[in-house]
Every structure is written in C-alpha cells, then in structure tokens.
Specification:
alpha+beta, Arc Repressor Mutant, subunit A, Alpha-Beta Plaits
Length: about 150
C-alpha cells in the first residue's frame, strides 16, 4: 500500500514491521539498507507522529479456542446509541464495533466458542436496552483479512 505522506524507506519499514514486529533495528536496517541508528530514528519518528499507533501481536482465534467468528448488524435507538456502544465495547467477546451511515445501526464483530455461546450471546444482545433488531452472520471462510492496517 502506498501512502502519500511517507517516503519509500518509511513504507518499507512499515511493510517489514507489519510482517514481523519483532525485527531488531539491526535486522530492519539490513532489509532497508540503513544503519541500526537510522532505522531507530525513523521508527521513533513514525511512533511520535502517530503513524505507528502501537506494537502488538496477532492471535489466531481458532487455535486459541474461539471457533466461531460472527458479524452482527445491530439496529439501535438514536438516543441510546452511546450506551449500547459502551456496553458492546466492554464485552470480551466483541472485537470491533463500527457505527454505520444511514439508519442508526452498528456493525459488530465477535469471537465465540461454539453454538451454545452464540445462543447465549444473542439472548444477551436482545436484552440490551436500546437495541431494536439484531441480524447475525457466521464467517465461513477468510480470503483476505487485516488486523489493523498491514502494509
């Protein structure tokens, strides 16, 4: 991916760190033809400027025991939207919550253990004050997926 505000070297650094965030500055320097110190300076600048938001890991949910990935389209009352968002973002099952354009609704991703967990969670969603309708879809295959923005 090309970013108009980054030069080619910064873009390469981001690509390499996206593939392996554990690269040392020396290893990264070899990959982008810079010294360890120059790489450290560039990475620190990317952090300070907010381009790099954080360093993290990517967990494979299937191998960690979360067997079902679901997307919910949740219609909400306008006046209760923020309270619903707060309740959803506090739930450990929920990984992403997006407010969508158009009618007041949220697009929500959740990782769940099994069919019984889905049934339990659907009942939990139906009990949240302000939710007027819930549609759910189970992910059956992943063809392209990005955690954060992998470059």
């Amino acid at each position: 991916m090309h970013f108009k505000d980054l030069d080619e070297t910064d873009t390469l650094i981001l690509q390499h760190l996206s593939n392996n965030g554990r690269l040392s500055n020396a290893e990264l320097g070899r990959l982008v033809n810079l010294t360890r110190a120059a790489v450290r300076e560039r990475v620190n600048h990317l952090i300070d400027s907010g381009v790099i938001d954080r360093f993290t890991i990517v967990v494979n949910p299937l191998k960690a025991g979360k067997m079902l990935s679901l997307y919910f389209n949740i219609e909400v009352e306008w006046m209760k939207l923020q309270a619903v968002v707060e309740e959803l973002t506090a739930a450990e099952e929920i990984t992403n919550v997006y407010q969508m354009s158009g009618k007041p609704h949220l697009h929500v991703h959740a990782l769940l253990d099994d069919a019984q967990h889905v049934e339990y969670y659907m009942k939990k969603l139906q009990a949240i004050d302000g939710i007027t309708a819930v549609e759910s879809e189970v992910v059956i295959a992943r063809h392209k997926e990005r955690g954060g923005l992998l470059i």
